[in-house]
Design goal:
With 120 residues, this protein is mostly beta strands. It has no helices and eleven strands. The relative contact order is 0.31.
């Protein structure tokens, strides 16, 4: 069974930085697309960034140029470096592992989330 555990959230002032980490427990890591999503109070869960197994990345427009996603296959870990943080970045951040291997071979796993609060 795959489990994801996030860490690195906390309280930071506007303009500050945080680095989130997500560790996957399970047999495989490299086939998964790893992504981060966030959910602000009273809002839906939104896509933030993704890194595929070939290393290519995608970002939402709201974080492009400020957030950077990376993966470390050897340690089954993905990171989200968040810079120039704004109050609007306040949310619970969730890690996701996604794999599509054809019909009937789709897998999606979520972590429990880590709180990020940007406030002075």
């Amino acid at each position: 069974q795959v489990q994801l555990v996030e860490s690195g959230g906390g309280l930071v002032q506007p303009g500050g930085s945080l680095r989130l980490s997500c560790v996957l427990s399970g047999n495989m890591f490299s086939p998964y697309t790893m992504s981060w999503h966030r959910q602000a109070p009273g809002k839906g869960r939104l896509f933030v960034a993704a890194v595929r197994n070939d290393g290519s990345t995608t970002y939402s427009d709201s974080v492009k140029g400020r957030f950077f996603i990376s993966r470390d296959d050897a340690n089954k870990t993905t990171h989200l470096q968040m810079n120039s943080l704004k109050p609007d970045d306040t949310a619970v951040y969730y890690c996701r592992a996604y794999y599509y291997g054809g019909i009937g071979a789709e897998r999606s796993y979520w972590g429990q989330g880590t709180q990020v609060t940007v406030s002075s």
